[in-house]
Amino acid sequence: MPLDPDIRDYAGASFPPGRPILAGAIDLMRRINDEFVYDAKATTVSTPRRCPSRWRRGVCQTSPMS
Hints:
Blueprint: H1 5-12, H2 21-35, E1 37-38, H3 50-55, E2 57-58
Parallel strand pairs: 1-2
């Protein structure tokens, strides 16, 4: 399944050319922690993946099929 362009672009900003993969992963985790709000009522298992990335809120519970 191809990545949503918004998700790809968001994550891609943490992995510029030449950055070690671990440094990119740490940067991505830091950005998610800083920029997203944990909100158990914002998403459900049927929420499409692209929605929490646009809303910047929710929880990690999307199904593999969304």
